[in-house]
């Protein structure tokens, strides 16, 4: 990993203390072009074209974790959960600190009611992004369902403390634990 510090006038959509995986820095220009076209297609809701572009980017650069993550998102939108899970797993094999892919993988495990696996994936997300409110709320619920109400309560409170609006699920989790006491 490389620590990136932006110049004050930089026009970027990442925070000044973000880290970038070396595999992402090494993306060949052709693979990056395919990926960008895939993102454009995705934004226009042209999912088959987006999928094709992300697959082309991956063919050009098999270590393209971000392309695997986007491919997984396309697969989710297309209803292909197994393919999406495989794409997210590959993204996290390439970059085990890729919080976005770990969160997406955690969402799939959560939907599959695999709460111990959900908890593991989300703990990894939180270790990378301690203020990720969605991950904290999902983690709290998974912990509650895994028989760890005290941990669930603590993470529900952490989700609430992020200040992100619409964290009703975190409130419900906290209320459930507190009511049971």
Strand order in the sheet with the most strands: 1-2
Order of helices and strands: EEHHHHHHHHHH
Beginning-to-end CA distance, first to last residue? 44 Å
- Tally of contiguous helical segments: 10
Strand content: under 5%
Number of strands: 2
Helix coverage percent? 55-70%
The 3D shape can be described as elongated
Q: Report the C-alpha radius of gyration, rounded.
A: 18 Å
Low-pLDDT parts are: 9-18
Helix- and strand-based class? mainly alpha
Main pleated sheet: 2 strands, antiparallel
Q: pLDDT average, as an integer?
A: 87
Would you give an account of this structure?
With 181 residues, this protein is an all-alpha fold. Helix content is 70%, strand content 2%. It has ten helices and two strands. The protein has helices at residues 22-25, 29-43, 47-60, 65-77, 81-94, 99-111, 115-128, 133-145, 149-161, 168-180, and strands spanning 2-3, 19-20. It has a two-stranded antiparallel sheet with strand order 1-2. Helix 8 packs parallel to helix 10. It starts with a strand and ends with a helix. The relative contact order is 0.08.
Describe, in short, the structure shown.
With 181 residues, the chain is mostly helical. Helices cover 70% and strands 2% of the residues. Helix 3 runs antiparallel to helix 4 and helix 4 (65-77) runs antiparallel to helix 5.
Question: What labels would you give this structure?
Answer:
181 residues; 70% helix
């Amino acid at each position: 990993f490389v620590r990136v510090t932006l110049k004050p006038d930089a026009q970027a959509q990442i925070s000044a203390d973000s880290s970038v995986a070396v595999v992402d820095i090494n993306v060949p220009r052709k693979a990056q072009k395919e990926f960008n076209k895939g993102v454009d297609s995705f934004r226009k809701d042209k999912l088959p074209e987006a999928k094709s572009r992300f697959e082309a980017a991956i063919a050009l650069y098999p270590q393209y974790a971000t392309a695997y993550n986007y491919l997984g998102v396309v697969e989710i939108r297309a209803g292909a959960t197994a393919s999406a899970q495989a794409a997210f797993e590959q993204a996290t094999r390439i970059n085990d600190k890729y919080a976005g892919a770990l969160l997406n993988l955690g969402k799939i495990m959560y939907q599959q009611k695999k709460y111990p696996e959900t908890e593991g994936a989300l703990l990894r997300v939180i270790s990378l992004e301690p203020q990720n409110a969605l991950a904290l709320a999902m983690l709290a619920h998974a912990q509650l369902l895994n028989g760890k109400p005290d941990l669930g309560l603590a993470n529900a409170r952490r989700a609430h403390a992020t200040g992100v609006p619409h964290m009703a699920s975190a409130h419900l989790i906290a209320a459930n634990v507190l009511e049971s006491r």
